[in-house]
Design brief:
The complex is a heterodimer of chains A (358) and B (521). Chain A has 358 residues and is mainly alpha-helical. Chain A is 70% helix and 3% strand. Chain B is an alpha/beta fold and 521 residues long. Classes of the chains: A mainly alpha (358), B alpha/beta (521).
Amino acid sequence: MSKSEQLRQTRFGQLVDAFGLPRLIITGFLIFLFIMAPITGSDLPTQITNVINRFSWNAVLVLAMVPMIHSGCGLNFGVPLGVLAGLLGGTLAIEMGFTGPMSFVMAIVVSTPFAILFGGGYGALLNKIKGGEMMVATYVGFSSVSFMCIMWLLIPYKNPSIVMAYTGVGLRNMFALDSFYAGVLSKFLEIDLNPLGINLVIPVGSLLFFALLAFLMWAFLHTKTGTAMTAVGSNPTFAKASGINVDKIRLLSVVLSTWLGAVGILVYQQGFGFVQLYTAPLNMAMPAVAAILIGGASVNKASVANVIIGTFLFQGLVTMTPTVITALIHTDVSEVIRIIVSNGMVIYALTRKTEGAK
Amino acid sequence: MRSIKKDFFGNQVLTDINFTLGEGEVLGLCGENGAGKSTLMKILFGMDVIRETGGYEGDIFINGEKAVFNTPFDALKAGIGMVHQEFSLIPGFTATENILLNREPQRRNVVSQIFGDRLNTLDYKEMDRRSAEAIKKMGVEIDAKMVISSMPVGHKQFTEIARELSKDQLKLLILDEPTAVLTEKEAEALLESIRGMSAQGISVIFITHRLHEILAVCDKVVVMRDGHVVRDVPAKETSVDDITRWMVGRDVQSGSAVPEAKAEPSDAKTIMSIKNLWVDMPGETVRNVSLDVREGEILGIGGLAGQGKLGIPNGIMGLYEAGGTVVFDGQEISLNNPRKCLDSSLAFVSEDRRGVGLLLDETLEWNIAFPAMQIQDKFLKKLFGGAIKWRDEKGIHAVTQKYIDALQIRCTSSKQKAKELSGGNQQKVCLAKAFALEPKFLFVSEPTRGIDVGAKSLVLEALKKFNRESGVTVVMISSELEELRQTCDRIAIVSGGQVSGILPAAASSEEFGTLMISQVV
């Protein structure tokens, strides 16, 4: 082996170490997709618009992973619980008769007590089963979603635009938010280049809202309590010996995660324009978990940068593959690729668990 | 086996190491933490880390042939056995099963005729015979049928060694600090068995911090410092003092230096009074301890392992379930509540560095500043009238740098991760953490466990200095009596979970010895 080859190898090795092999592969694949998009005949600005849009919908849900990872509770597979709090907030705000931007504000306000309540119970549960958080979190998600499937039918909602059209009892599977909070953030300060002949639309409001939450998270992690949270995740015994109430900090992190999940789903809905109920919340956990892992987080270390990079890579992949790959091989494999990537990332991260831990 | 010759060139941690070892010789390897002993042994044993980090240069010769070990399996095949510092035993298995794990003699049975050798039955009679043989080789008594989890530490260590000995082709045995966890009597037995092994033609590389053991058992001594072999001499021609000097490259006070005469502060007021303390700490149960600590003194707590001396600080600081009354500075301290203790200016340096003492994955800055930040709101900037407590990175950096300089912590920068430091330096970080709290009262538990002579004296000096200059009362718990006698004013001996007596440091070893075994349970 010549010297230069050795050097290149070590340099490549350093890059792999610093960035992580899966992240490199996915970044490479995404760049490949961006290059292929014009070649296969799809419009690049439209594609970019799609990617940014998907990013703005999902970023807050991915941010919801951060507090629990920091406090050592692992990946929040129980984020459907937060989603349910958000759904309750959204539907109740509409039921109370709020419309337009006010309905979005009220949705967050109403969902907050639910998020605190659910998060509190969930956190107390996780404190009882230290070491098995992620497994239990998954089932908390499953069971709570199933329970709420019953509740959506039993809670006496009356608003005609959200209850089942035929019987008038129980909520619809899916309903549009046009007269409520659809686009309240994404239409705010929106940059639309269509008049210039470019199909590029940037939802500035949504991005700003995410930036605000991300900043608050970053700031929180720099405060005394945030520092304590990181220490609890890093070594709970050390934290205990330093006079930290470990259980309380963990509980706080779970409540924060749950609340961010609730806000996250509302942001998602205002961008998407629809509310999906019943089993739909189950589909929110895996993409969010996969995204933060692609972003470079491990089971017990995560940063806001991980959230941004990960959401961009993952959502880019999910939006670009259908158009590009489908155009290339004339078969729709987008769903297959999405599942392979998201589940593959989760498996990869869990197998590397020991590396982050002591 | 005639000789092993090893050369390494250009490696950062090991430079130009050469030594030879003859058949049946015992070689003592010593050096400060971080001198490169473990790295050297890892290379010899073909550990994965070495290959992953770029391999090594130089050659190893066994019996005059060049040997290349890519995996530990290659090394095992070549007849090299290694006993690591940490136990690798299966707790639920008996000694015999552990000794012969995966090398069990087997018998064919009906099922294995059909499905292959993997379903052979184990030949327990043969296993018993072979493990008994291995244990006999060591010349100690272990119950081969006893389950590992119920064995005392020393027997576990012997089981590990027996496992290596039971390998037929064993030619070279590496023992990495085998006596660190043993009592003196057990260590003596181990040394005896090392002599026995060498008589049978097995070469031994013996790594330890206890220098007198090296002199007692080794044929030759290799001393390492900063990746170099500084001395390679026959054991007969050297002494503990010589080795110490070579190891640290400077003079270290050794032996039992007379503690500086200090005015007997018998009239000093009692700052902490412990009454009828019990602590439920597994393996270190405290039954009924009553003890008065005087203000400004260094009180040593000694005793045999498992008698409860470690339980005292752990119980008072709230890490283990405890009961009784502890009065500090006129106020009763509520037990089982670490926060309350820390609030009343008590601090604790735990014996479990990696488990309790450090945030291994975080920077030194975090490790040192964290408790002070959380408990006393130091290193925080208050924003919006105190509503937000923001981390003061500059303040944290400054205090860390201060202690790095003061305690001579060897690190690349204050941003280095704690897990990357060697044991002695990690211990200094733990001390710095406690000093940063500026406590009135400090518990230090086993401050020198597993660290080398140089770091040891630095740590003890730092404690003395802290005690004298800041007037802090220090209670130091240690298994090493010599160390206590050098450092402390008074020494309390714990035996059977109770204080069996308190003596001045100048009392004779016999007096201490009598107290230690007086109430052993």
